[in-house]
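Message: Study each token:
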Amino acid sequence: MHEVISSVGIDIGTSTTQLVFSRLTIENPAGSYRIPKITIVEKQVIYRSKIYFTPLISATEIDAEGVKRIVRSEYAAAGMKPGDLQTGAVIITGDTARKKNANEVLSALSDLAGDFVVATAGPSLESVLAARGAGTDKLSLDNKTVIANIDIGGGTSNIAVYQRGDLRGTSCLDIGGRLIKVENGSLTYVFPKIQALAAEHGIRISVGDRADRGILYKVAELMAAELAASLHLCPITESHKKLYTNDGTPIPEEPKIIGITYSGGVADCVYGSDIQDPFRYGDIGVLLGQAIRENKLLSSLTLYKAAETIRATVVGAGAHATDISGSTICYDRSLLPIKNIPVLKIPAEDEKTLESFKDSILRQLPIFYTEGQLEQIAIAFDGHERSSFKAVQELADAIIEGAKEVIESRYPLIIVVEHDIAKVLGNALNFKMGNKKPVICIDGIPTASGDYIDIGEPVAGGQVLPVVNKTLVFNT
């Protein structure tokens, strides 16, 4: 089997909105008598849109019609029609994700193409998407080390840490290039947290002040220093803790970060830029990039080149890799089909003990919060080392402890295992929870953090479920 499909990625961020069209070649390398295993064998970005400032009606509302006009014009420029696209991704990120009509915008845009991954990315999920787009996960695996990616946008800086390819922590700070805006030589906007940070160090800045490059560079230096503190390169102060988005928390102190990548709109200024006008973009993004590049603590880390900078969050779209679940599965048919479920993947290292297995779930759950509420998720892991009846029972206990928040939510408990233990594990979960919580437990499906899955209605007489694993495709 050989097939070429077209996809689109649409990223609506705090500062910018952009589209990327890709052509994906998929093949089934399995023989005629084996279960299909469809994989992407080639990916090619065929069109990159202009980068637009995200249109807003007010500080709390996205200009949905403005966004739609951008999308339609870029479809035309790319020579694409909605019917030409088999798949795609629409992601609203950064401060824009908190606008009051974000979900309505997503819903409207998802009709412009095929089977979209549609997500309002909370700060932690955005950190993961940006880091994968930057190639940080792959760099950490290839170099067998610990690398952090800082995605510096207009309103936030999203951090994700990877150790040998596994996600180890995420965080987000209210530090970004457009938190101070400049127009006609004057300050037109100063974010309160940044104003307070400056005042704490004896720098007074207010709307209406003249845009003094020297003063604003000192503020940018303070912001860069706070990013260094967020990576535990220096002590964290009480005032530093106030900079975390939505009262979030720092990344764990361990593992110690060795290397760094940068993505987001400010990243090009970090890696080096010949931009002479510090206020070229109507903000302090250029100055912030320079201050980060010159910060001694951040410079002490090994700098890796990101695969993508401003386009890191989504440079491709949702590529469908369709699998068939194993036949030893457990599910509630009334819940199916179910679509666009983000995957919480437990790294192999965390599967070694039940305690680390449970802790991995608890540590990652905040990634899937949107405005303080847990989204529907699927908990995925390998499961090869837990095949005996006793081991599966213990595994069920660890899932119940770690996924207590999921169990107490309105969503079903979805478990995706690669090894062939889903039926006995699902039965154990049902028994231990007194059949009071809907459970979908499937196996035979490989996944990764940042993936989304669809689970279809049963086929083959109800023996198996079709599963679409929608991996966001990044230009790595």
Q: What stands out?
A: Residues 213-230 form the longest helix (18 residues). Residues 59 and 99 are 8 Å apart (CA to CA). The first strand starts at residue 2 and ends at 12. The chain has three domains: 2-121, 125-303, 325-472.
